[in-house]
Amino acid sequence: MNKNVNPPQQQERQPGRESEMRPLPDYEPKTRGSGRLRNKVVLITGGDSGIGRAVAVAMAREGAAVAFGFLNEKKDAAETVKLIEAEKREAFSLAGDIGYEKYCKKLVSAAVKKFGRIDVLVNNAAEQHEVDTPEELTEEQIDRTFRTNIYSFFFMVKHALPHMKKGACIINTASITAYKGHKTLLDYSATKGAIVTLTRSLSENLLEKGIRVNAVAPGPIWTPLIPASFDAKKVAKHGESAPMERPGQPNEVAPAYVFLASEEASYITGQVIHVNGGTIVNG
Fold first, then answer.
1. Alpha-carbon distance 248 to 238, whole Å?
2. To the nearest whole number, what is the mean pLDDT of the chain?
3. What is the per-residue pLDDT across 63-118, written as a single tens digit (0 to 9) for each?
4. I need a labelling partner for 110 at 20 to 30 A (CA). Which of 70, 180, 212, 281 fits?
């Protein structure tokens, strides 16, 4: 099996730009839509590229209108809007820093003004930064990583809940690192562990409101965050450690989100789906 499936490459800033990746990630849904999310309203953070884009397009194909937030990747965001509209669904996007409550409130308010409500909230935006030793961690980096990766989840839930009714759901993006850890992604892994615990706690808290809360924990996926996080040599080997010996594509992860958002998952809450190429994590 050819393990080096992607050429060496690197981007200088996070969260990275999908338009600059080679090869481009595969976001196209693998199946035809069947109306599983017909007339639903979905709000996604980090929906411009990677897993977020694939989820946006997959949910649009299933009948949902999609609003999403992004940091500053205007070209990627515009392309995602076009892809959603190509599925004959309405799209809305808003740029801003998800790590600050003011923007989260603004994003929710804008989405509700556009579509009237929120049926599915997908907390997905994230960033990660390598360090070789704990001593390299700065207060600034820790704060930045936690703001983006976990503070935003609290902020989005806080402001979205008043616009979510019984039958709505929340889906959080965790990571295989929450279960296995990661030698050089110390603060990132810590935030992903926090997301798993938040998912379980929220599921209990919102049970009486009839709102389900679940998570997806991807393994190595080919997204802009990879060349924006690692050096070119590591990028070329991304995914080799998975039992399938390759990185997954965003459209291999997105179906898990569609399932959790659909009525097929009506008896599932507080759980994590692992889409990681075969790694057994027992969690």
1. 10
2. 91
3. 999 999 999 889 999 999 999 999 999 999 999 999 999 999 999 999 999 999 99
4. 212
Residue 134 has pLDDT above 60, yes or no: yes
Residue in 143, 50, 39, 164 with CA at minimum distance from that of residue 97: 143
Count CA within 13 A, CB hemisphere, residue 245. Answer: 4
State which amino acid sits at residue 153: F
Determine whether 43 is exposed, middle or buried from the number of CB atoms within 10 Å of its CB (0-12, 13-18, 19+). buried
Per-residue pLDDT averaged across 149-172, rounded? 98
147-183 burial by CB neighbour count: b if 16+ within 10 A, else e?
bbbbbbbebbbebbbebbeeebbbbbbbbbbbbeebe
Give residue 243's pLDDT. Answer: 87
What is the rounded CA–CA span in Å between residue 75 and residue 96? 15
Active-site residue 188, yes or no?
yes
Please give the pLDDT value at position 22: 74
C-alpha 274/C-alpha 110 separation (Å) is 32
Give the pLDDT mean for 241-263. Answer: 94
Q: Which residue bears the tokens 């010996």?
A: 245
Residue with token string 């599921």? 203
Distance CA 90, CA 59 (A): 11
Can you give the C-alpha Rg of the chain in angstroms?
17
Active-site annotation holder among 179, 188, 257, 267: 188
> Per-residue DSSP letters for 172-186?
EE--THHHH--TT-H
